Amino acid sequence: MGVREHSWVLHVDLDQFIAAVEVLRHPELAGRPLIVGGRGDPAERAVVSTASYEAREFGVGSGMPLRIAARKAPDAVILPVDADAYTAASARVMETLRAHPGAVVQVLGWDEAFVGVTAAFPEATARDLQREVLERTGLHCSVGIGDTLLRAKVATGFGKPQGVFRLTAANWTAVMGDRPVTALWGVGSRVGRRLGTHGIATVAQLADADPDVLVGEFGPRMGPWYRTVGRGEGTSVVDDTPWVARGHSRETTFQQDLTEPAEVDTALRELVAHVLADVDAEGRPVIGLTLKVRYVPFTTKTFSRRVRPPTTDPDEVLAHVLDLAAKRDTGRAIRLLGLRAEMPMPGAAREGHTPTRGGW
Questions:
Q1: How far apart are CA 202 and CA 52, in angstroms?
Q2: pTM for the full model?
Q3: Cross-strand bridge partners of residue 124
Q4: Which of 73, 156, 168, 242 is the most exposed place for a label (fewest CB within 10 A)?
Q5: In this structure, how many other beta carbons lie within 10 angstroms of the beta carbon of residue 212?
Q6: Sign of the alpha-carbon dihedral angle for 116, 121, 125, 127
Q7: Alpha-carbon distance 71 to 86, whole Å?
């Protein structure tokens, strides 16, 4: 009797994607500490977008201020962000994944995607995908294999770099049970602290948590969901429906702190114009706004509101944003402003069944 084929979820994650794209463009940088961020000038206010493995050995990580990264790795090469190059490289990778026979591809971002396959030996399929991506794009990737999207996503971390790892119901508890809840996809430090107040610190404890406790802490929708995450369960369906943005956001880090109300007003008007240009391209109105204000030295506050009725009128959106801005501490200098506009989702949009970290 032959080996039976089964449906699998593969999570393909490109290794140090942005840095790897830059090394392809500049082969002489291979093996050197490489940092990509801002306009490539550590004297300016900017953060690290990515760091090569060699730079990470010095403690450099994504989101770190560029000036601090430059101090940690003084011999590193620092390059500006080139979004167009990364978008083009990502498109080539996704085309390669879609070209694999029988593959269903759900893109998660520039550097990762779920791939649904039917196979008897998923590790062999994973290695095939790694080889195809490398041959056609010059980029390496790691692949997590799972029986749910969540397990496949978590599995990839055990395979990095350039490896393959399988995580299913059979070994979930053995591999994940003693790990902290923040090792789970969709559970950040804030949620981890809230779980900790109930004595829930590990994945196994979350998997066995009292549902009533979770509902009391997180509500009737998110409470049961976190318990599901602790068990590694959830959907196993890879959905290749084109992704539709729920919102658009922009932010600006100012090289000189904003201290005058007129400066803040001008910056907000520019921010609204940029965000609305993105929203207009979607053809959907604004239904919610979130203003992000980062004060000097590094304290961040957000102010949100629903927009009723929904609108596409720039003057109305600006009026809402100025109202939100009026809630800020006017006595504090500002180093960053960000704005997110939320839109209604069209009826044919993909269900939001994939948890994500972060966001604001």
A1: 30
A2: 0.83
A3: none
A4: 242
A5: 9
A6: positive
A7: 26
